[in-house]
């Protein structure tokens, strides 16, 4: 294949695609809005699954590097009732297929595996247009442009490439996270640290839940999930950290103090993360020379699969293109025909799990059944 590939977005999906193409000797350029690899914090932990995310890592030839960053013991999971009663305490016996890594470290491995200059930092796409005959033009915020015969939108929820293929736009799902961190947890926040345990902790309740993960460096990462309309959150001044914390904590009045401490004792200001999703089963008709992967293609509410699916998308597209070196359209068709049902199947299964947690079944059995039907949504949050 002689056509260089242009990727918009240096997230995990776009970088996986770039790496797999590099392994196959296909030239690629990635344009990324962020100014540098360290321009912002790259989110929390990810559980990389043996049935999708790890397959992508294998295709990228980076399994040794991946194993080196796995956080041991983090597959442990606890489920607590709102009064602190332990409903489930599942240890990490080393046999689970979802090892945990820090998102930033995984991204670093992918970046280090690419030739210098592959990623063009500080290039925020502002628009795209079709030029005909499979060629597309991308315009960046600084006014510069690039023309390509193979454009891949790996640019997330608010993709600037998606309008070339689809009129769909993300819509609010009715649920948001409020996110915070507790540092040096074992010494400074011992009750909360004990409640969370060595891996992840979930305290579910209809319409509201507390999730927490033990990350590297004795850090607890908390996600408070609330099913509220956007207007409800808009009434909270998140620029006033103390007031915002108090308002969120008020929703958990009467809960065990070791659980509410995950909100009230946060060492960082609370950050609002509203959840958006594309229409279920989102797909498009084949358009020459352009496709999407990850959230740009199938954005869903956090369900534990987002980063894994994005990486698998990148790997599968990266394998399809060299398989059809003289027929880009055949490669894109093959990729999309597998990607559409794969992402829809995950969204359907995970959506059913979330519905059960939001239902009125508040018994210990119902809560555990709901939790065990899904992975903690916070893990692939960003």
CA(first)-CA(last) distance = 33 Å
The CATH superfamily of the largest domain is FAD/NAD(P)-binding domain
Low-confidence stretches: 351-382
Structural class: alpha/beta
Number of helices: 13
Highest-level CATH class of the largest domain: Alpha Beta
What is the string of helix and strand elements?
Answer: EHEEHHEEEHEEEEEEHHEEEHHHEEHHHH
- Tell me roughly what share of residues is in helical segments: 25-40%
- Describe the sheet with the most strands: 7 strands, mixed
Please provide the count of β strands: 17
Number of domains: 2
Query: Can you give the mean pLDDT?
Result: 89
Q: Kindly estimate the percentage of residues that lie in beta strands according to DSSP.
A: 15-25%
Which CATH architecture of the largest domain is right? Answer: 3-Layer(bba) Sandwich
Rg over C-alpha atoms, rounded to the nearest angstrom: 21 Å
Shape: globular
In the sheet with the most strands, the strands line up as 5-4-13-14-15-12-16
Using the coordinates shown, work out and report the CATH topology of the largest domain: FAD/NAD(P)-binding domain
Binding site for NADPH: 40
Family: Belongs to the aromatic-ring hydroxylase family. TetX subfamily.
Cofactor: FAD
Catalytic activity: a tetracycline + NADPH + O2 + H(+) = an 11a-hydroxytetracycline + NADP(+) + H2O
Can you characterise this structure?
It is found in: Cytoplasm. This is Flavin-dependent monooxygenase. Monomer. Keywords: Cytoplasm, FAD, Flavoprotein, Monooxygenase, NADP, Nucleotide-binding, Oxidoreductase. An FAD-requiring monooxygenase active on some tetracycline antibiotic derivatives, which leads to their inactivation. Hydroxylates carbon 11a of tetracycline and some analogs. The protein has 2 domains: 214 residues, FAD/NAD(P)-binding domain (3-Layer(bba) Sandwich); 107 residues, 2-Layer Sandwich (D-Amino Acid Oxidase, Chain A, domain 2). The strands form 4 sheets. It has a 7-stranded mixed beta sheet, sandwiched between helices. The chain has a 5-stranded parallel beta sheet with strand order 7-2-1-11-17, with helices on one face. It contains 13 helices and 17 strands. α2 runs parallel beside α11. It starts with a strand and ends in a 10-residue tail after the last helix. It is α/β, with parallel strands linked by helices.
């Amino acid at each position: 294949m002689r056509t260089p590939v242009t990727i918009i977005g240096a997230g995990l999906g776009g970088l996986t695609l770039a790496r797999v193409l590099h392994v196959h000797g296909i030239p690629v350029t990635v344009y990324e809005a962020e100014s540098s690899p360290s321009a912002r914090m790259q989110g929390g932990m990810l559980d990389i699954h043996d049935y999708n995310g790890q397959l992508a890592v294998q295709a990228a030839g980076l399994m040794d590097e991946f194993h080196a960053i796995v956080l041991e013991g983090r597959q442990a999971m606890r489920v607590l009732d709102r009064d602190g009663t332990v409903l489930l305490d599942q240890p990490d016996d080393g046999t689970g297929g979802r090892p945990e890594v820090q998102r930033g470290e995984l991204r670093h491995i992918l970046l280090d595996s690419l030739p210098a200059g592959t990623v063009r930092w500080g290039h925020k796409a502002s628009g795209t247009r079709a030029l005909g005959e499979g060629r597309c033009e991308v315009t960046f915020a600084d006014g510069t442009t690039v023309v390509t015969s193979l454009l891949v939108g790996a640019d997330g929820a608010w993709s600037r490439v998606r309008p070339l293929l689809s009129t769909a736009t993300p819509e609010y799902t009715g649920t948001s996270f409020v996110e915070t961190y507790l540092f040096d947890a074992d010494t400074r926040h011992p009750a909360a640290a004990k409640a969370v345990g060595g891996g992840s902790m979930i305290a579910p309740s209809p319409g509201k839940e507390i999730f927490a993960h033990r990350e590297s460096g004795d850090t607890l990462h908390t996600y408070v999930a609330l099913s509220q309309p956007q207007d409800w959150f808009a009434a909270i001044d998140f620029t006033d950290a103390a007031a915002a914390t108090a308002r969120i904590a008020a929703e958990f009045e009467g809960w065990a103090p070791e659980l509410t401490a995950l909100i009230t004792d946060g060492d960082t200001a609370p950050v609002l993360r509203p959840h958006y999703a594309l229409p279920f089963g989102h797909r498009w008709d084949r358009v020459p020379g352009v496709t999407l992967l990850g959230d740009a293609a199938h954005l869903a509410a956090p369900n534990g699969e987002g980063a894994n699916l994005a990486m698998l998308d990148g790997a599968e597209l990266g394998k399809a293109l060299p398989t059809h070196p003289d027929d880009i359209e055949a490669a894109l068709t093959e990729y999309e025909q597998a990607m559409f049902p794969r992402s829809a199947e995950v969204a359907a299964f995970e959506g059913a799990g979330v519905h059960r947690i939001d239902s009125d079944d508040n018994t210990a059995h119902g809560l555990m059944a709901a939790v065990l039907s899904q992975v903690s949504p916070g893990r692939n949050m960003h």
